[in-house]
Specification:
CATH class: Alpha Beta
InterPro entries: Extradiol_RC_dioxygenase, Glyas_Bleomycin-R_OHBP_Dase, Glyas_Fos-R_dOase_dom, VOC_core
CATH architecture: Roll
Strand order of the largest sheet: 2-3-4-1-13-16-15-14
Organism: Albimonas pacifica
Helix content: 10-25%
Order of helices and strands: EHEEEEHEEEEHEEEEHEEEH
Protein name: Glyoxalase family protein
Number of strands: 16
Number of domains: 1
Number of helices: 5
Strand content: 25-35%
Shape: globular
CATH topology: 2,3-Dihydroxybiphenyl 1,2-Dioxygenase, domain 1
Oligomer: single chain
Structural class: alpha+beta
């Protein structure tokens, strides 16, 4: 199975403007696509990542106005960690102080150093210093290359029990890289840099409640539809209940629910976010799924401006 690490992470937000400002200004990521939810076209789908939104860099949000706040617990992605260069944490601490974003030093797990912070809806974010990450961060958001976020480092899943989800990830090509108390770290070899999935066992945790600040699903990257079909075949044989491939305009996606309750997706690296915008113009125009193009004037009236 040709899993290359994470493709993207999709989460929920309470407001589009604040969400956009945090990820493009505070974190300095590039908004690589401004589109709408396929099933709720009156709601944005915003993508933030590196210059091209390459697999392993893109966090995406559905900002539903008036949505209730999510509650932390078991059966969810409890933290998203980004890779930053060695020694960059002090610079980020000063930047976040200047912007009024609360943060704390991160010491561990597995000897990691960096910062812990929260997004505008309380989402748990880590900036982890990673040696020898060759990816180039986006510098158009006001963060110079020496400090820029390279992409995802990984995600943490909090589960009541982890054995079955660990077995699923091992079927997907991940291997145990370390155990520290209730935390098991799995990594995929020769990945795209977004290689880490941590499983944290907490048998007493209440069930997480989905809402603003919670992760809706995590997506894993494969190069193309042939690799996706092979992944679907292997996972189906292993007992997973998987959707047919779905065209998401910028990638093809299949979805399945893990034994621990987390929604997984496997997404193709092709065709990419520059299929309908020039690379230098990514994320500037409102792009609509084909079936919603006829509703453009109405959708543009409903959606709040986010670039003011």
């Amino acid at each position: 199975m040709k899993i290359n690490g994470l493709h993207h992470v999709t989460a929920l937000a309470s407001g589009a403007r604040e969400n956009n400002a945090f990820y493009t200004h505070a974190l300095g990521l590039r908004r690589v696509k401004k589109t709408v939810n396929f099933d709720a076209p009156d709601t944005y789908h915003l993508y933030y990542g590196d210059e091209l939104g390459r697999p392993g860099t893109a966090i995406t949000y559905f900002p539903f106005a008036g949505i209730g706040k999510g509650a932390k617990g078991a059966g969810t992605t409890s933290e998203v960690a980004y890779s930053i260069p060695l020694g960059a944490a002090d610079w980020w601490a000063e930047r976040l102080d200047a912007l009024g974003v609360p943060h704390a030093r991160r010491d561990g797990p597995f000897g990691e150093t960096g910062l812990n912070l929260a997004g505008p809806d309380g989402e748990a974010i880590a900036l982890v210093e990673v040696a020898d990450d060759p990816r180039e961060g986006w510098t158009g958001g006001g963060v110079e290359a020496a400090h820029a976020i390279r992409g995802f480092h990984g995600v943490t899943l909090t589960l009541r029990e982890t054995a079955r989800t660990q077995a699923l990830l091992e079927t997907m090509g991940y291997a145990v890289a370390g155990v520290e108390g209730a935390r098991t770290r799995l990594k995929v070899a020769n990945g795209n840099g977004a290689d880490v999935v941590d499983l944290v066992a907490d048998a007493e945790a209440p069930r997480a409640i989905e809402g603003a600040g919670s992760v809706h699903h995590i997506a894993f990257s494969v190069p193309d539809r042939e690799a996706q079909d092979e992944a679907r075949r292997i996972l189906t044989q292993a007992g997973a209940q998987i959707t047919p491939p779905i065209d998401r305009d910028y990638f093809w996606a299949i979805y399945f629910r893990t034994p621990g309750g987390v929604l997984f997706e496997i997404a193709t690296a092709e065709p990419g976010f520059d299929r309908d915008e020039a690379p230098e113009a990514l994320g500037t125009a409102l792009k609509l799924p084909r079936q919603h193009e006829r509703l453009r004037s109405r959708i543009e009236e409903i959606l709040e401006p986010i670039d003011a």
